[in-house]
Amino acid sequence: MTIELKSISKIFAGGSAHPVLDDINLTINDNEFFTLLGPSGCGKTTLLRLIAGFEHPTSGTIELFGERVEGTPPNARPVNTVFQHYALFPHQTVAQNVGFGLRMLRRPAPEIEPEIERMLRLVRLEGLAHRYPHQLSGGQQQRVALARALAARPRVLLLDEPLSALDSKLRDEMRVELKLLQRNTGITFIFVTHDQGEALSMSDRIAVLSEGRIQQVGTPDDIYERPRSRFVAQFVGETNVFEGKLIRLPGKQPEFKTSSGALLPLGDTPADDDNPALAFVRPEKLRLGNPDDLASDPQARLRGVVTNKLYLGTDTVYYVDLEGGETLRARIQNASAIDNRFDVGAAVRVRAEEGAFRTVGRST
Amino acid sequence: MPELIPAPEPKREKFPKSRLLLLPAVLVIGFFLVLPLVIIITYSFLVPATFGGVVWQFSTEAYTQFLFERDIFDETLAFNAAYLQIFLRSVMLAVSATVVSLIIGFPTAYFIATRPDRQKNLLIFLITLPFWTNLLIRTFCVLLILRDDGLVNSIAIGLGLYSTPVTYLYNDFAMGAGLVYSYLPFMILPLYANLERMDRRVVEAAYDLYATPRRVFTEVILPHARPGIVAGSLLVFIPSLGTFLVPDMLGGGGKLLIGNLIQLQFGSSRNWPFGAALAVILLAAILVVLMLAARRSRVPDTAERR
Which of A5, A190, A213, B120 is most enclosed, with most CB atoms within 10 A? Predict the structure, then answer.
């Protein structure tokens, strides 16, 4: 395995007593695209800086390829970083920037030159070798930063919100490129972001952080479909959340009774989790139908009235006030013209596939 | 064919009134910069009057005097390096003071620039604090610190480093120390302004890419600080070159610097043209240094814009 973090805590001197990182345990594997996801201030960047060597843990150990590195300075770790705002050397050309790491490693010049060219080809910046950073666009600077960090052939590449300063179209392109780059180079990528879309689309595994603690580690599918805490369910993706309690009757599927009295059909629920914190359903897992058409459908027991409607092109988001008082969002794909048919004020039944409603435990 | 209607000539005043707005600036520059300079240059080509002032008669004697000695009897010229030596000694002292200021000022400026904002402001305030006192008094304080029964000797003897007082005063060391003490803030302030703007993540990036601390300094910090180094060095070098207070008080008046020499010509020597000529020579030397500095600091700049 590549990186092993054991009970890492970090408290900044002079800061509040509240730790920035609190008992982090994490294993990151070889050739993995691993994402640290969380809102700003959750400690994800601090964790990255600990791995890079810019900060040192207050307690706990960091192992890189089986070696303890807590005291090792950044220039002695086989780890390179792509910084959030690129941090290119302003007095150096693109080529000099890209060759910096190799120069520092005292590789002979005839070895460095072709390597710079190879890197610039990799990020498709061949023609810009002699430009200075301030003459480049944001996207080009981003690529230089990437090439610079990759040129010295790190075994781990750390990326600190590298896409946050790009416009949305470029960001989408870079997602694909980064993913390909990771697969082609075989380098372990550790990617920090607050954008759950980036995390879900690129990662092999995701660690969700909140307030210095790891909430859940898993594949994008795990995180999205089977969140294990209220925080993860609400932070990743859109969610309809219901407060209430579990009802388990012998011989029947368990149900969740919301505080307003509505009964939600649950799929398989862990047997030991009889006191869940909440139930939730993703808006895209819901369908709407005429109350009369679905009267006999056991999966469509919720009734309500459409109170608002957002047409998004690919989908339409309906806001449905349920009889009990809760408001539900349903995201219906506009696959055909009839999908976009309910108007504000229409009475509807909400249908959910089996297993669409899930519960989240109280413990994290 | 339709007749072409000539476009109306745009009214063009020979002297647009808006140019009058330049007048205040032109007057200020004219009165306070150009006129004094013209007077100095003019006086340098005149003949000294016996009791100070000048006789309006063209002469290059003042410049000749800088390099040559005229024999009183047969009026022949003999090369005399005395004034040139004073000039070179001044330059050497100013260069030393600049280098020492840079060596002390750079780490200080870097330290301040990397403190949290509130500490920064306080520290910069402390750096500028000596300016609130007259230069004469500050120089006198250096004298108090360095003299035989001064602070340095008392402390060193108190600590048992040596038993008889060491003479620090009235030599080149004392003058250098006085110059550094007087002009160090001029080095620190531009360096601070420069380093404060430096992106600390660039330093981290270099460190991340296998640079040792020394190479982080030479490859990243130094290129960034270059304009600040040039500005600070000029601000220390120029007043150091023209100083007359420091050699008078700390040099003991025994070793003349160019500043004293000029002061003397307008004072007891009553040779205004020679004083003016020395001032012109000093000015020319400083201009040469400025031009070199301008070219130095322009090189990376134009490269960036290419």
Answer: A190
